[in-house]
Every structure is written in structure tokens, then in C-alpha cells.
């Protein structure tokens, strides 16, 4: 059985193919490609990738950013599901339409027998406590219109939690864990015994931490104020907050943290300070939500590869029992590693996140022959 994972973004896609010698318990990656470009053609890209595989694809697992409250687990895609996903596009206009394009392309490029499976980035946070998922709004402005905190990056946070559980079986269901997914988009989650209690992204992926080009937390009245001052629509302002803010907007040069760290001008340094301060503030908040923690896990491109950022985020948290092993932290670049002292009460880890593998696992579980 061969499964294809499609992890699509607005201008790029990661494709990975997996086979299993034992029905899904063990997955072996047999193909990979990372393709980017504004004029990316999903059908041609998938056809070219599939042609290099040794055998037909039995199932295609698609990362879908927004599942709303309806989709809380991996789902076989049929016409009804596609229609529902299209309806959710108003909640994720930058993401869900792209996922639907890749689903249509996969149906065309792969064998007609291949099952299309949607795996949702919001699913892990579908059962956030009411105090974490509701805004302080009347129902006519909130729950009745779907205005609530959904949470995103669920695949990544769940993958970090699952690996943490394997590394620390002494904590039932993982105990109390804080996970940070720091890449182009950034988010943090508080997880107690496998149940997310809170996460930084909310109604959209714009809320929360400072990101590469997203501002994170912002007073909503600023949108109306900017729209008036700039004689622009609210949609235009939100677009700019998504694409021109964050590290890019503050530094005035780039949203790439690696590049910013090499630059020495004041604006670049302030952008990094703001990024780390916001993350540290959320760590403190989630220590309060959890009543302390057993572990902190870093994932994502920045979280996995930049020890100086991890150090700056965790600075001044020794009072909470959070300490780094300086040498271990410096050595941890892109590989799994514990970066706290061995005898520390709170274990700090770098755990590389493999979203494509998480997609494939979901697909094997749903599309394996015994479930047919």
C-alpha cells in the first residue's frame, strides 16, 4: 500500500510518499519533493511526482488548515465533504481553497481508486475548554456566526506531544506540556495529559505570537482605525497584517529569522526582541494555565535550528524551574535533542516536526484494507 502526503501552502507544497511492510505500523518514506512558486500547477506537480513512484497510490492525505467545528478527525473526501470545505473557505480564504485545488488535482493525477483523505490542522484543538475557545462576545456576534478560537498547527503540536510521550513514559499521557511551533507561522500550546487547554492562534492564524510576516496579537480596533486612515477596506488591512507585518514589518528588511540574526542594525535586533518577548510571555501564561509543567518542546524551522532564539525565549524563567544546558542547546540544530540538564525537573527538548509523516499515519489508519 502506497500513500501520498500533500502538505500544501499558498505558493509551495511538500509531497512525500510512504509504503508500509506491516499495514501501517511502520512507515517508510519512498519519495519526497518540496516545490514552490507562485505559478505552481497542482495537477502537473502531482502527475510528475506520482510517475516516479514504484506502484499506484492507494490514498492521498491532504493537510487542510480549517475544519471548523464539523471536521475533528481525518475524513474521507467525497462530494459532500468538498462542499462543506468550500463553505469553510470564508473562515480560511488563504488556505482552504488551495487545499481543494490539490484534492481535485490528486483525483485527476492519481489512480481513480486512490482515496482522498483530509487531515485537519484545527482538529487537535477541536475540544478546547470553553474558556479557551470562546471570545467575550454575545452569541449573536460569536458562536452563532462561528466566531471562536479554533487553533491551528494542530498536526505539529500533536506530533510533538506524541513524541514527547514516547520519550517520557513516566508522565501519564505526557503530563503537562508546552509546545512551541516556530517557523514562518508560529504558535504555542498548553497540553495536559494529551488534552489541549489553550493555544495562541485563534479565529485565524493571525492571532498570537509574532511571526515571519504576521503581526500576532493586535487590538481589533486597530483594523478599523487603519482602514479609515489609509482609505482602505478592512480586508486590505488584514491582508497587510498577514503579509507585511511580523518580523518583516518590524525589521523593514526580512521575515527570515536566520537572516535577521546575521543583521546587526537596531530594527533587526528589536524585531527579534519582540518575537522572543511575545513567546516568553505566552510560556509564562501557559505555566499558569497548566499549574506548572513537566516539559517544553520546540519544533519548526526556527525552533529546531536556532539555539540563540530558544535561549532568548526562555531567558528569565529560571524562577519557574526552566533551565537550559548551554552546550546541549548550542549543539541542537535540526535534530532531536534534550537541551535541559539531565537532572532538571522540567525537561526541554527539540523535536523535529514531520507533518508529512503525520498525514501519512492518518491516511494508513483510515484507508488500510481492514477498514475498507
Based on the model shown, name its key terms.
Nucleotidyltransferase, domain 5, 372 residues, six-stranded mixed sheet, alpha/beta, 2 domains
What does this structure look like?
With 372 residues, this protein is an alpha/beta fold. The chain has two domains: 2-120, Nucleotidyltransferase, domain 5, CATH 3.30.420.40; 172-350, Nucleotidyltransferase, domain 5. The protein has 14 helices and twelve strands. The strands form two sheets. A six-stranded mixed sheet has the order 3-2-1-4-6-5, with helices on both faces. α1 packs across α3 (96-109) and α6 (221-230) crosses α7 (234-243). The chain starts with a strand and ends in a 5-residue tail after the last helix. 44% of the residues are buried. The mean pLDDT is 93.
Unreliable runs: none
CATH superfamily caption of the largest domain: ATPase, nucleotide binding domain
Tell me the span between the first and last alpha carbons: 13 Å
Largest sheet: 6 strands, mixed
Task: Kindly give the count of domains.
Answer: 2
Briefly note the structural class of the backbone: alpha/beta
Architecture of the largest domain, CATH level 2? Answer: 2-Layer Sandwich
List the total number of helices: 14
Query: Rg, please?
Result: 21 Å
Which CATH C-level class of the largest domain is it? Alpha Beta
- Tell how many strands the DSSP assignment holds: 12
In percent, how much strand structure appears in the residues? 15-25%
Mean pLDDT, to the nearest integer, reads 93
Biggest β-sheet: strands ordered side by side in the sheet? 3-2-1-4-6-5
CATH fold topology of the largest domain: Nucleotidyltransferase, domain 5
How would you describe the shape? globular
The residue fraction in helices comes out at: 25-40%
The arrangement of helices and strands along the chain is EEEHEEHHEHHEEEHHHHHEHHHEEH
